[in-house]
Specification:
Distance between the termini: 44 Å
Radius of gyration: 22 Å
Structural class: mainly alpha
Shape: elongated
Largest sheet: none
Number of strands: 0
Helix content: 55-70%
Number of domains: 2
Mean pLDDT: 89
Length: 225
């Protein structure tokens, strides 16, 4: 995992305008804007992106404006020109689709929650797996991912290998009850389930028979017969 992160480390000084444009639409942290500005003082096209983005902190916009010798519009004017939330999400999706696979992986590692929610559905599993390495990803997001029936097996396996996530009962339950989860993987986690969830699992015909049988055996043991 660490090797993958090193290979995908995003150098903002050479990142494409298209990649940075998506990144600042859903920044994971306000400090990112300062980092982008500091790395791109010789790239007018990037400074313009910062100046015209309403998410950019005022001091960063002013600093970029001076470096670029461009007047900085008041935030109120920029906000008025913003798209509706639904249209904005669609615009982000379209911009992401135009990026290369390596760029989408870099974005998956660095992007905010909205970006992650788009990239977790990417057709390339390498991009999906990289989303799970994003330092800002939350347990709630991982639970939603673990419930997805379109998620690659490798992503489910990656989730089960991270100790912090497997300590979260909701994530374990999501993995076990996902019909996409390989039987062997699900069975190893069944011991972590509560009796009421084992009962539901035993009756769930959407999951493999091997998992249902394991839940039934464990229920009998818990009930003492």
């Amino acid at each position: 995992m660490e090797e993958t992160k090193m290979l995908l480390e995003l150098d903002l000084s050479i990142a494409s305008k298209e990649l940075i444009e998506v990144l600042i639409e859903d920044p994971p942290d306000p400090s990112l804007f300062e980092e982008i500005a500091r790395s791109n003082m010789n790239r007018p096209e990037i400074l313009r992106l910062l100046i015209e983005n309403p998410n950019t902190p005022e001091e960063v916009r002013e600093h970029a404006g001076k470096a670029f010798q461009m007047p900085v519009k008041p935030i109120s004017e920029i906000v008025k020109a913003q798209e509706a939330p639904e249209a904005r999400t669609q615009t982000i999706l379209q911009k992401i689709q135009r990026l290369t696979i390596p760029e989408r992986r870099q974005l998956a590692l660095k992007g905010g929650r909205e970006i992650r929610s788009i990239l977790i559905k990417d057709p390339y599993k390498e991009v999906v797996l990289t989303v799970l390495e994003n330092a800002k990803i939350t347990d709630t997001e991982v639970e939603i991912i673990a419930r997805s029936r379109s998620i690659p097996d490798e992503a489910l396996r990656k989730i089960t290998k991270k100790r912090e996530w497997i300590k979260n009962y909701a994530i374990v339950l999501a993995v076990v009850t996902n019909p996409k989860t390989p039987s062997g993987m699900a069975v190893t986690l069944i011991n972590e389930l509560k009796t009421k969830d084992l009962s539901l699992l035993e009756k769930n015909k959407n999951i493999p028979e091997a998992v249902r049988s394991a839940a039934k055996r464990l229920l009998k043991m818990k009930k003492g017969y």
